[in-house]
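Entry 0007
Protein: Histidine phosphatase family protein
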Amino acid sequence: MVRHAQAGHAPGLPDSERPLTPRGERDARAAGEEIRRLAPALVLCSPSVRTRRTAELLAPGVPAEIERDIYEAFPDDLLDVLRRTDAEIASLVLVGHNPGVHELVAALTGARLDGFPTCAYAVIELGVPWEEAGPETGRLIRVGRP
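Output (structure tokens):
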């Protein structure tokens, strides 16, 4: 699970169109070093500009699916996205937004996280197939931030 990297604000620019800042670009590349070691088979990504760019920098060359349901999602919405994942996919990266991503990490693992800043990521090992993912079905392996 990854929260998008830092994005800029510009007057009149819709939220979904906000680009990454230079710091956001650097942070996403740095987080990608860890993410790529996990060899994800798929990236599930919100359609916003900032999440798509974060995903490109985290996992270049990994197939990505843009999931409309990730944008402005509550944890249950994100859980539904995970549950739809093909059983053949062993490892994936979900790139989304807070508070949904932070709350989903907590729900899946039962962990209490002290915040989840931009470009934070959580590595979770699920103990069940994707379709059975739910509260406390995962184990928090690592939380990181560039």
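Curator remark: The chain has a mean pLDDT of 96. Helices lie at 22-37, 49-58, 75-83, 100-109.
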